[in-house]
């Protein structure tokens, strides 16, 4: 690229403004590292009158972000609007087709349409960069795609949603209400425009699908990610986890198994002394197992203005220097579509919390169901004593097959002495 790189930014929200601030603060540093003078020449956002706390003097304003794709004064387009369809997708496609490199933080778009966008980028020989889309400020895409390129990857997992990690950490530390903690995460700029994407696990699943593609050289396969969010994690589960020596974290796990690739996002009990259990607040962590390097772990802030903008700016520098690889590590035509291993086939240990009437014979009935499903119980504890009233029974199983456990819980839910839906959380074997 030339010694003067002109940038167009679509979306002046948390991330877009963060990028403007870095370019303003680090002009000389970025020039030294990229060999080019970086300047923002055009922007587009919805509301021109909004005070964004940074000067936009001398920068062209477009009412329609798609116009950035054809502006001759723009060399790189940053898509920082969000959303998997509509304007974000149109802008990325149009920019790549007109030969303009694209940098995006949009994991929803890449999870849904990444294969198609990668194909367009390849056909045009135009970079499509997205470091900020996974784990915010952690350079995990570069680490996985380039730094670990000499390894066959067997597993990649981690804490991929800062909002959920913030909520789970605060619930444990302060005993605060879920809704109030979520509002704080929104104020801090961590949450998605639709926060249900965060708390229902969808955002983490978008990121996991991207990571799995880079790790295993497979097409992005978001539709086959098993997803469970944190809405049902209760204070009672958090207390039980502590008593059993665990913490609850929302994990994304992608693993190569003999039956195919497992991709799952769900709350997990993780041992309190593990690295992952000690990743708190908005921090994310990603662990990658490579056959020669063994385990590597990456920790950092997974959301927010500075960390996310930091990843976007790193992509800009790569493009200015002419450094780029196939979007997901291997050319689209060389991707290997490995089948998905369904969650029903998953094997692991489980935490189960039952709410049952306190009366003779209930534990015997519960044990019989587990025996019939060939699930071995490691520990069983009844909480409290309230004859004829609801009590909690906490069970931990030995390794079992998920479909057997689900069947067992279905049977227990039908008991006349079952007073609430049985609750299950998988225990991580990390
Ligand atoms: P914000 O909601 O803060 O910002 C979105 C921006 O897009 C706003 O400035 C908005 O305009 C603008 N916008 C909306 N619709 C249009 C449109 N039709 N045309 C032009 N501009 C439009 O989002 P974030 O900055 O938080 O997120 C941006 C992207 O980065 C998303 O893909 C998100 O998933 C991703 N991301 C965010 C992270 C974070 O921590 N926030 C971390 C990692 C990725 P206006 O301000 O005028 O209303
Ligand atoms: N909403 C996301 C999170 C932003 O909380 O992690 C970072 O992708």
Q: What does the largest sheet look like?
A: 11 strands, mixed
Q: Shape, please?
A: elongated
Using the coordinates above, name the CATH class of the largest domain: Alpha Beta
Q: Which CATH architecture of the largest domain is right?
A: 2-Layer Sandwich
Structural class: alpha/beta
Helical percentage: 25-40%
Strand content: 25-35%
What key phrases describe this protein's structure?
single chain; alpha/beta; Rossmann fold; Dihydrodipicolinate Reductase, domain 2; Alpha-Beta Plaits; 3 domains; eleven-stranded mixed β-sheet; six-stranded parallel β-sheet; 17 strands; 34% helix; binds NADPH dihydro-nicotinamide-adenine-dinucleotide phosphate; binds L-homoserine
Question: How would you describe the overall organization of this protein?
Answer:
With 430 residues, the chain is of the alpha/beta class. It has 3 domains: 4-137 and 325-331, 3-Layer(aba) Sandwich (Rossmann fold), CATH 3.40.50.720; 140-301, Dihydrodipicolinate Reductase, domain 2; 346-427, ACT domain (Alpha-Beta Plaits), CATH 3.30.70.260. The chain has 13 helices and 17 strands. It has helices at 14-25, 27-34, 87-97, 107-124, 140-147, 162-174, 178-187, 196-199, 202-216, 235-244, 305-320, 362-372, 402-413; strands spanning 4-10, 37-44, 60-62, 76-79, 102-104, 128-129, 153-159, 226-227, 246-257, 260-271, 283-290, 294-301, 347-357, 377-383, 390-397, 400-401, 418-427. A hairpin with a 3-residue loop joins strand 11 and strand 12 (294-301). Helix 12 runs antiparallel to helix 13 (402-413). The chain binds NADPH dihydro-nicotinamide-adenine-dinucleotide phosphate and L-homoserine. The site of NADPH dihydro-nicotinamide-adenine-dinucleotide phosphate has 29 residues, from helix 1. NADPH dihydro-nicotinamide-adenine-dinucleotide phosphate binds next to helix 1.
């Amino acid at each position: 690229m030339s010694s003067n790189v002109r940038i167009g930014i679509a979306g002046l929200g948390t991330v877009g403004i963060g990028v403007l601030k870095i370019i303003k603060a680090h002009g000389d540093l970025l020039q030294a590292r990229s060999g080019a003078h970086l300047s923002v020449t055009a922007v587009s956002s919805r509301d021109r009158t909004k005070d964004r706390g940074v000067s936009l003097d001398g920068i062209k304003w477009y009412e329609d972000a798609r116009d950035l794709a054809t502006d001759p004064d723009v060399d790189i387009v940053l898509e920082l609007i969000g959303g998997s369809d509509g304007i974000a997708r149109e802008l990325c496609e149009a920019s790549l087709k007109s030969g303009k490199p694209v940098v995006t933080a949009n994991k929803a778009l890449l999870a849904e349409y990444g294969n198609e966008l990668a194909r367009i980028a390849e056909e045009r020989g135009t970079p499509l960069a997205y470091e900020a889309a996974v784990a915010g400020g952690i350079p995990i895409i570069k680490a996985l795609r380039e730094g670990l390129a000499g390894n066959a990857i067997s597993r990649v997992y981690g804490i991929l949603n800062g909002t959920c990690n913030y909520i789970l950490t605060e619930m444990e530390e302060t005993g605060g209400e879920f809704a109030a903690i979520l509002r704080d995460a929104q104020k801090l700029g961590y949450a998605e425009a639709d926060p249900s994407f965060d708390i229902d696990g969808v955002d983490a699943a978008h990121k996991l699908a991207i990571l799995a593609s880079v790790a295993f050289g497979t097409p992005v396969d978001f539709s086959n990610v098993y997803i469970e969010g944190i809405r049902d994690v209760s204070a009672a589960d958090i207390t039980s986890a502590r008593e059993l020596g665990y913490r609850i974290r929302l994990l994304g796990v992608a693993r190569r198994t003999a039956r195919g690739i497992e991709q799952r996002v769900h709350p997990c009990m993780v041992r309190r002394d593990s690295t992952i259990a000690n990743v708190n607040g908005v921090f994310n962590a990603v662990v990658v197992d490579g056959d020669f390097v063994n385990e590597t772990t990456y920790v950092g802030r997974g959301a927010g203005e500075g960390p996310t903008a930091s990843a976007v700016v790193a992509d800009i520098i790569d493009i200015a220097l002419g450094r780029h690889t196939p979007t997901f590590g291997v050319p689209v035509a060389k991707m290997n579509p490995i089948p998905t291993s369904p969650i029903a086939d998953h094997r692991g240990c489980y935490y189960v919390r039952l709410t049952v009437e306190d009366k003779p014979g209930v534990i015997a009935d519960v044990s019989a169901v587990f025996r019939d499903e060939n699930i071995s119980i490691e520990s069983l504890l009844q909480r409290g004593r309230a004859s004829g009233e609801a009590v909690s029974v906490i069970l931990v199983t030995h390794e079992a097959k998920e479909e057997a456990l689900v069947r067992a819980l279905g049977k227990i839910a039908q008991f006349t002495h079952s007073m609430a839906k049985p609750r299950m959380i998988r225990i991580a074997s990390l």
